[in-house]
Amino acid sequence: MASCRDVELGFVEEREELLLKSSFFPSKVGGKPAWLSLKPIPSPEQLSCKLCGETTIFLIQTYTPRDYTFSAYHRTLFIFVCRNPACCRKNENKNLRVLRSQLPKNNDFYGTVSTVEDIVNYDPTADKYQPVCIVCGAWGTKRCAKCHRVSYCSKGHQVIDWKIQHKKACALQQVATGESAPVADHGVLFPEYELVTEAEEYEEINEEKSEEEKMKGLSAFLKSDEAKDIDDLPLSELEKIAISEHDKVFLKFKERVAHEPDQVMPQLLIHLNVDSLGDSIDWGTLCVFTCADSCDIGNNYHEEFVYKQDVSDSIQ
Fold first, then answer.
1. DSSP label at residue 164
2. What's the rounded Cα separation, in Å, for the pair 21 and 35?
């Protein structure tokens, strides 16, 4: 047996919203981003789709600290995606934005609190440093012209909020009550989950499979793919039907993920409620390439490169 390289698997879990705030340094999927550096958070330009120009929506963030590097004691990677299906093009990553944020242990935002109660009471958030879009959590560079109380990252998100909530609330907001209206579900964000990672426990067996094992495996694959009368076919015929280079890779993929069928990589689109046979955003794998040395970027957000592998490419 030969051990595979170390691989971390991701799983989504329901979690109390409180524990997904910035001060808990979460890894999470969906909802609004839990910004690491709280000022300045990314500008609308940093988060705009490179194809349509609309604001991309928060997809996922992973807390990946480099405590052996002074400037990256805290470190988080953020991925954003445009929700316009037309911008999800084959072999293009222009509908995606990836940003790196990192901070030293002694920083401008987080103290040395040690208990959950301390963190809850301290609760640093980005909106204490600059206006934040009520719809998506990005930097709110625009405000409602009437009440001046609600901020938006773009005209598009202002229109959405006006139709769903703010048209009725605006007059009430003008009254100096000191209270804001509850935030409505604008139908823009993805469902929110905690992203839990675990080391993969998997060993690849290099021994040759027996003739009988090959027959069972090929038959099961073909039957799951489409209904065929194949029980009486010899192995040589099964291989001709099933084992193209395409299917060899796909069979290996199915075997590997079967050990942990709940891992996020194949099913994330389902959890996000965007897995559709019609027009929808889609990908096979998103691979983020970031600075190996975690070079110091201060309190800013630095754009990194993401490679999008499409589903059709990932099984060829």
1. I
2. 8
Phi, psi of 2 (to 5 degrees): -125, 125
Helices (H), 91-210: 116-122, 155-161, 167-174
Contacts of 165 by beta carbon, 8 Å cutoff, 6+ apart: 181, 183, 184, 186
Other C-beta atoms closer than 10 Å to the C-beta of 66 total 14
| pLDDT tens, residue by residue, 216-239 | 655 565 555 444 455 666 666 656
Instruction: Using alpha carbons, select from 304, 265, 311, 301 the residue that is nearest to residue 288.
Output: 304
pLDDT, tens digit, 9 for 90 and up, residues 92-126: 999 999 999 999 999 999 976 666 666 667 778 99
Q: Which of 143, 139, 141, 179 is nearest to 161 (CA)?
A: 143
SS (H, E, C) 14-38: CCCHHHHCHHHCCCEECCCCCCCCC
E strand or H helix at 314: helix 311-314
Please name the residue ranges forming H helices in 200-275: 211-225, 235-242, 245-257, 264-271
Q: What share of the chain is helix, strand, coil (3-state, %, to 5)?
A: 30, 20, 50
Measure Cα distances from 229 to 53, 147, 222, 223, 238 in Å. Answer: 52, 70, 10, 9, 11
Q: Give residue 63's identity as a one-letter amino acid code.
A: Y
Question: In the chain, how many H helices and how many E strands?
Answer: 8, 12
